[in-house]
Amino acid sequence: MKTKTLVLLALVNAAVSTVVACSADGGGDADSSGDALSQSVLPARATTFHTTPIDRIGRPAISAVVLNMAAEVDEKDSARVSHVKWYDELDSFSGADSAGSKQARIVDEITSGMKLMDHSDGNDDFTADELAAWVDLFKEDALLVDVSKPCGVDPDPSVPGDSSHSYLDIEKEMVDKDHVHATCGGRTPKDDTVDVFMTFAITHRDWHPGAKDWKNTPEHVGDLIDNASAATNTFPYLASPHLVSIPSVPLADSVDFGMGKPVAGDFSEIVEESAKAVVGEGLKALWKLLLDQIGIKS
Amino acid sequence: MVPINVKTLGVFAAALALAGGVCGVASASDHFDSSPLFRDRPDDLTDLFAFTPPGQPGKLALIMNTRLGVQRQDFSVPGIPSAKKAVTIGQFSPKIAYVFRVRAGQKAGTGPELRLVCAFTDASPATQRGTCTPIVFDEAGNLSSVDLSGSAVSFGLEKPTVSSGGNGGGLAMKVFGGVRADSFYTDTFGVVEYTQKKDADVFNQRKADGRLKNLLAFANVVSLAIELDPGAYFKAALPEQPATTFYRVTAETWSL
Q1: pLDDT tens for each residue of B1-11
Q2: How many Å apart are CA B56 and CA B2, to the nearest integer?
Q3: Which residues is B131 bridged to in the sheet?
Q4: pLDDT at B78
Q5: B159 contacts in A (CB within 8 Å)?
Q6: Which of A59, B77, B146, B202: CA 20 to 30 A from B236?
Q7: DSSP 3-state assignment of B188?
Q8: Dihedral sign, CA of A158, A257, B29, A149?
Q9: CA neighbor of A41 nearest in space, from B133, B108, B47, B70
Q10: Nearest beta carbon to residue A120 from set B87, B90, B200
Q11: Which residues pair with residue A31 across a beta bridge?
Q12: Number of C-alpha atoms within 13 angstroms, CB side, residue B158?
């Protein structure tokens, strides 16, 4: 068994960036042990105004959804990968690369992706001027926050207006003069940014609880996975890491996945189901091999 | 510490490793789109959050997540000393700078910038230390002559740290670096299917077929969180700059 286990662990290690189990003891209390260091710890490039990042992120769903809508993809998906890669190398605020040659391209590609999203339900809801205004905003890849307004991180449903959904609230005000932002905007950890963005981009409607037409659009568009994360109202806000216990103990009795609802079923069944769902027949064969190796009947 | 069964770990890890491999092609929020320079993707930013902290108007909370799929250092397998080393990947890279950039004002493409540059020592998670240093540029891109290095904060992982800051405490900064649950959720493959089919009905069909899956439901990330008063930093570095409550935020990784 020991040898088999080591083989498995080697497989795990080689499998790159794997989500695995961990224990959680919480973040602990804040202390005052922070000590100031000299500016010499700064890399030299930190003082250069324009940057060339390896990766960057501002508004979610722009690269992963809008740009992918516009991308022509080959069989190996390499076109999509290179397509997103050049976007990541642009300066977040100027939308320019070091040579200044890609700024026009980002406008073209976001415009194309937004048009395709708008049309994906069979309706074209945005006017040309509205679309141009949104593209002008999106070419800067940044979250827009108003710190004078509140945002709920782990909202209390009994408090009116206490919502974790705030994404694009301010941007909508900048384009739609009838819209008044009531939240801090930006993005909170539990914000359903995929559904907020897709509802907006596909239907040109709002889906922010509390927004002026929210009650008229309860059937929001999106991935249909809602409220599936945990966060707290105290720093550092994200929930403690996921826990995993022994497989013989019913999952709901031993594991908190932070999903806000109990998860029933034997642990190995849950994992097997997840694997089958994502990798198809080829993985099933490998999956069976792995189960056989560690002595679990498949 | 929660007991962990090795069989379960192997099954779970192998399954999600394979799921993660597929996710590498099927990008979610911003997962898996960084440079392949680093095998375990310490430079890959998965999510950015920026918001007013509950009950603290005027303050700004910033969170960047990286390295989807992490294992904490305190994991161990009884009787298998090598296991800890084999699966330990939950920390920051000493070869990467993790940077928050905060522009003052509402209008895209403009405004002075507060930059928080965080770098980490080359050490195990138990002893690794990070340092986040604030610097400010004016709107023309010139580095402020006001030295804010006294407000830099040094911290260890897994425990929130508060710097005393300068300027009568106005430049205090709260920092956390460590492993947290990934709060992003989506039907990853549904999003990919949607971008390929360009049909908004994809998700309804996936729901009808029972194919909706939040593949990030079990995921952990390495998270870097900072909380501060951005207005105080801009006022200290650029006294002539008009005050604002609007900020535009992005996060970047740089190769060091």
Answers
A1: 323 233 323 32
A2: 35
A3: B119, B154
A4: 55
A5: 27-28, 31
A6: A59
A7: helix
A8: positive
A9: B133
A10: B200
A11: B161
A12: 17
Q: What residues pair up with B98 in beta bridges, in sequence order?
A: B118, B253
Angle between helices A2-14 and A267-293 (to 10 degrees): 110
Among A191, A200, A237, A245, the residue to mutate for chain B (most B Cβ within 10 A): A237
Question: Nearest-CA neighbor of A202 among A217, A184, A187?
Answer: A217
Which among B19, B173, B192 is the nearest to A275, CB-wise? B19
pLDDT at A28 over 50: no
Predicted pLDDT at A219: 64
Point out the least confidently predicted range of A3-7, A227-231, B138-142.
Answer: A3-7
Q: How far apart are CA A133 and CA A175, in angstroms?
A: 7
The DSSP letter of residue B149 is G
- Taking a C-beta distance cutoff of 8 angstroms, is the pair A225, B29 a contact? no
Q: Which residues of B touch A294 (CB under 8 A)?
A: 7, 10-11
Contact A150 B206 (CB under 8 A): no
The predicted-structure confidence for B123-168, as pLDDT tens digits, reads as follows 887 899 999 999 999 999 999 999 888 889 999 998 999 988 776 7
Q: Which helix (H) or strand (E) holds B153?
A: strand B153-156
ipTM, two decimals: 0.82
